[in-house]
Amino acid sequence: MDSPETTLDPRFSSPDVEPTTWSAASDVLDGAQLSWISTVRGDGRPHVTPLVAVWLDGFAYFSTGPEEQKAINLETNSSVALTTGCNRWDDGLDVVVEGSAERVTDPPLLERLAALWAEKWDGRWQFEPRDGMFHHVGGPANVFRIVPTKVLAFGRPDFTQTRHVFR
Predict the structure, then answer these.
(1) CB atoms < 10 A from the CB of 30, how many?
(2) What's 25-47 look like in SS3?
(3) What is the pTM of this model?
(4) Any idea what the CATH number is for the domain that residue 153 is in?
(5) Distance CA 105, CA 99 (A)
(6) Contact at 8 Å (CB) between 163 and 9?
(7) Hey, is 147 helix, strand or coil?
(8) pLDDT averaged per 10 residues, the chain (length 167)
(9) Is 30 left (phi over 0), alpha (psi -120 to 50) or beta?
(10) Structural domain of residue 17, as residue ranges?
């Protein structure tokens, strides 16, 4: 993935601060134990739910059962926002990935992703890649990659609002 164009929005940032680097935003995405995904229902209403995701080679990946609301939403609208960070006012870095979700079925990539999930959560998330999906005790799950168009990073205690745009 190409490096993004990075800009600081001075309207929402403290004076004399630097933009959050792409590396720092990527580190938050890579280390996140929990994220929130926002999708759009067919009638336009939003749907937001927590999930576990992995960050690999500039893309966020998540899985969902084919009958879950987010999977149903993605059938008609691939636009998503993935959010992670912290809920403290005085410190932290919140990151929002905006983009489109596309289904992943490539067996070698699914094998790699299953290993990442298992490693990241000390074996608590076990997926068996088979038939272009993940399989686990809860049933089958489709795997999606978020192709980012924009990533926002909101830093504290010196407030920064950084935009990373991918062309």
Answers:
(1) 12
(2) HHHHHHHCCCEEEEEECCCCCEE
(3) 0.94
(4) 2.30.110.10
(5) 19
(6) yes
(7) strand
(8) 90 96 97 97 97 96 97 98 93 97 98 96 91 94 98 96 95
(9) alpha
(10) 5-165
Structure tokens at 6: 């990075």
Give the count of domains, the chain. Answer: 1
Contacts (Cβ under 8 Å, ≥6 apart) of 84: 28, 29, 32, 34, 35, 36, 53, 94, 95
Q: Are 37 and 80 in contact (CB under 8 A)?
A: yes
Q: Are 96 and 25 in contact (CB under 8 A)?
A: no
Candidates 162, 160, 163; CA nearest to 14 is 160
Q: Which residue has the tokens 């001075």?
A: 10
Amino acid at position 72, single letter: I
State both tokens at 43: 């009638």
